[in-house]
Write a structure and sequence with these properties.
Chain A: This is DMSO/TMAO reductase YedYZ molybdopterin-dependent catalytic subunit. Chain B: This is Ferredoxin-NADP reductase. Chain B: It holds the Pfam family FAD_binding_6. Chain B: It comes from Hymenobacter luteus. The complex is a heterodimer of chains A (212) and B (245). By secondary structure, chain A is an alpha+beta fold. Chain A is built from 4 helices and 11 strands. Chain A has a domain of 141 residues: Sulfite Oxidase, Chain A, domain 2, CATH 3.90.420.10. In chain A, the strands form 2 sheets. In chain A, strands 1, 4, 5, 8, 9 and 10 form a 6-stranded mixed sheet that branches. In chain A, strands 3-2-11-6-7 form a 5-stranded mixed sheet. In chain A, a hairpin with a 4-residue loop joins strand 4 and strand 5. In chain B, helix 5 links the parallel strand 10 and strand 11. The mean pLDDT of chain B is 94. Classes of the chains: A alpha+beta (212), B alpha/beta (245).
């Protein structure tokens, strides 16, 4: 919704980004850390990742098993709901297509709840994890993923706001129905498309009602 | 929750807090009570349509009806904070949207347990909203604020915090100066460490609810120290200022 309001004397000060920014975002070269509580420290000897719920072959990988899966390089742009965007981030990890092919979603499976070490959760449509759009990141910028950025392994779903890219991921549960995760229960969007500036539940309602 | 719509607020006052920090008191046409710890998003629009948004914690308590106070630190090269510092005076209008955030919040209830607040620099802002809310509500749960600053001139809300500590026996203010302490200072002069956090927690009669806000380094370290002391991670809530904003 555009209006005629403007702030006298305000002008762009940051150099215009050479990238196309989603609405309301600015570019940063740093990699800010955001999380709701203490950083869980998960040793790789204790780490495991599960993929279960509405699947025909529930999976549970140890660190060694997971690292033996085929890995790929990903260069992606990330957009945080706190208004920063970072372009061209380089990751190495395992595609969700690989993992979901092993587990075999049932026809009823339409949503995923990501459960994390430390108790964080977030919800996503299953379709958003398929088709090369999502991966479990194990390395960032050529280094093992640091704990404060979600290491040893985090979900990365770069086309949605970055809170959907759950840090310290422990289990992906396939479900028939959508349900809110941690930030979603606190009023954040169920989907989080940065290009539609879908930050809060209100934005979901506005988009559904066609009022924006 | 109520709808979050952009509204045009009017600046009622601009209060210098430190050389690099100012508080902007805004009157909102559609004010609604916030929860202590929540933030608003502020949006600036240039005549050519260019927009920039930043989020700022509310410093005022929900009892201060019709207004919000946003305390803003001047960020080097900060597009939004720079404009607010240079250009904004009482009577000016600013677009805001909020209140936002349902997790880093504290309610002053008669049942409220011990509270440990840890701030680094401008991270004190949402914690100040909690302290003011607590004061307005007349709640006397044992409360400690451990506040880390570089130098004496960096202490935001200094007089108010000293007055609060002087008049409320259930509130303890612990300052630590990491670079320069005032003359004659006998308190802490180092970054918060495990021993300092343990001393802060020992001033409280039971394991506290913890709220930590500040730069990433301080928040990461402090949350780890508190977790290592056996405080459950559900009782430790954090909010960080990443660089680059």
């Amino acid at each position: 919704m555009q209006n005629s309001f403007f702030n006298r004397g305000f002008q762009r000060k940051r150099p215009a980004s050479q990238h196309v920014l989603p609405p309301g975002q600015y570019e940063t070269q740093d990699f800010p850390v955001l999380s709701a509580g203490p950083t869980p420290r998960i040793g790789t000897t204790k780490w495991a990742l599960g993929l279960d719920g509405l699947v025909t072959n529930p999976q549970q990988w140890s660190w060694a098993e997971f690292n033996a899966l085929p890995q790929q390089e990903f260069t992606v742009d990330i957009h945080c709901v706190t208004q920063w965007s970072k372009f061209g981030t380089q990751w190495r990890g395992v595609s969700l297509d690989t993992l979901l092919a092993l587990a075999g979603p049932t026809p009823e499976a339409r949503y995923v709840m990501a459960h994390c070490y430390g108790g964080y959760t977030t919800n996503l449509p299953l379709a958003d994890l398929l088709g090369g759009k999502a991966f479990i990141g194990l390395q960032y910028d050529g280094q093992p993923l640091a704990p404060d950025h979600g290491g040893p392994a985090r979900l990365v779903v770069p086309h949605l706001y970055f809170w959907k890219s759950a840090k310290w991921v422990q289990r992906l549960e396939l479900r028939a129905e959508d349900a809110p995760g941690f930030w979603e229960r606190a009023g954040y969007s169920m989907y989080g498309d940065p290009w539609k500036e879908q930050r809060y539940l209100d934005d979901d309602e506005d988009l559904a009602a066609g009022t924006r | 929750m109520s709808r979050l719509e952009w509204q045009v607020a009017t600046v009622e006052a601009v209060v210098p807090e430190t050389p690099r920090v100012k508080t902007f008191v805004l009157r909102l046409p559609r004010w609604q009570p916030h929860r202590a710890g929540q933030h608003y998003t502020l949006r600036l629009t240039a005549p050519d349509g260019y927009q920039a948004q930043r989020s700022y914690s509310v410093a005022s308590p929900p009892e201060q009806t019709g207004q919000i106070a946003l305390t803003v630190e001047l960020i080097e090269e900060g597009e939004v904070s720079g404009y607010l510092f240079e250009g904004v005076e009482p009577g000016d209008q600013l677009e805001v949207r909020g209140p936002i955030g349902g997790y880093f919040v504290w309610e002053a209830t008669p049942q409220a347990g011990p509270l440990l607040l840890v701030a680094g620099g401008a991270g004190v802002v949402p914690l100040m909203a909690m302290l003011r809310h607590r004061q307005h509500a007349g709640v006397h749960n044992p409360t400690v604020l451990l506040y880390s600053v570089r130098a004496p001139e960096d202490v935001i809300y200094h007089r108010e915090l000293l007055a609060m500590a002087a008049t409320d026996a259930t509130f303890t203010l612990l300052l630590t100066y990491t670079r320069h302490a005032p003359a004659g200072w006998t308190g802490y002069q180092r970054r918060p460490d495990a021993a300092m956090l343990a001393e802060a927690a020992r001033r409280l009669p039971a394991p506290p609810d913890c709220f930590i806000c500040g730069p990433t380094g301080l928040v990461e370290a402090t949350a780890s120290y508190l977790a290592a002391q056996g405080i459950s991670s559900e009782a430790i809530r954090t909010e960080r200022f990443g660089p680059g904003s």
